[in-house]
Amino acid sequence: MKILIIGGGNMGKTYADSFLANHAIQKDDLYILEHFEEKVNYFKSIGFKNVFFQPDEYIKAMDLIILAIKPQDTQALFPKISPYIQEGQTVLSIMAGVRIETLKKELPTKKIVRAMPNLPAQIGMGMTGFTSAEEVSKEEVFNIQNLLNTTGKSLYFDDESKLDAVTAISGSGPAYVFYFMDAMIETAMQMGFTKVQAELLVEQTFMGAVHLLNIHNISCKEWIARVASKGGTTEAALVQFANLKLSNAIQEGLKAAKQRATELGK
């Protein structure tokens, strides 16, 4: 399989590194197209062989073309790559909000896959939701899922609109976690801890809680009940969270993120 990654930013490089590290593809079969010349030179300096500054005939030989660019860059890119894209080639887009139908209109192929990865993909702990056009075969979907799984875990959805919710939950999700952690770190510092101490207390707490959730078949609500004893410190915090309607605020925030994802796709 020959793969072209268009865009050498964070996610483009993440895919390149992950595919190679997991032996999903040989280095000779991996191609990168990047419109910043300094990035072209960077990729070449770290051992990538097939790195290009401009689209050309090499695109016709690709089995999979990955669009790892910003949605606003498509107007400049599509007219340049369209003459080289063949009808039978598969395109995987990780651009937020750009619908399959839009990509079908802009590109000469109907075989489109859309995916929404998140930031932890950079360390092999990502969560990716993805879907595909009906023209993409089950075998091709399976092969692409194997590639996506080199960066973590993935879920396939028949309904493309689910990707708006994926964007709101897992795509944006790391920012919500960092937001909560930051509030805890700031509060710990107000309580007299140094920044280093506060960060260690909070970071290890989050890591430990997630690992507990992963290794035991116990729900979040059950874990909360186990930690929060009657009349204790945890209960005092949870009562305050309830008074502030924190759960409702989080839910409304997620709905706002989903709504924005839907708007961006129109």
TrEMBL record:
Pathway: Amino-acid biosynthesis; L-proline biosynthesis; L-proline from L-glutamate 5-semialdehyde: step 1/1. GO terms for molecular function: pyrroline-5-carboxylate reductase activity. GO terms for cellular component: cytoplasm. The keyword Amino-acid biosynthesis applies. Its EC number is 1.5.1.2. The keyword Chloroplast does not apply. One of its GO terms (biological process) is L-proline biosynthetic process. Residues 160-264 form the Pyrroline-5-carboxylate reductase dimerisation domain. Residues 2-97 form the Pyrroline-5-carboxylate reductase catalytic N-terminal domain. Its main location: cytoplasm. Keywords: Amino-acid biosynthesis, Cytoplasm, NADP, Oxidoreductase, Proline biosynthesis. It is found in: Cytoplasm. It catalyses: L-proline + NADP(+) = (S)-1-pyrroline-5-carboxylate + NADPH + 2 H(+); L-proline + NAD(+) = (S)-1-pyrroline-5-carboxylate + NADH + 2 H(+). Catalyzes the reduction of 1-pyrroline-5-carboxylate (PCA) to L-proline. This is Pyrroline-5-carboxylate reductase. The gene is proC.
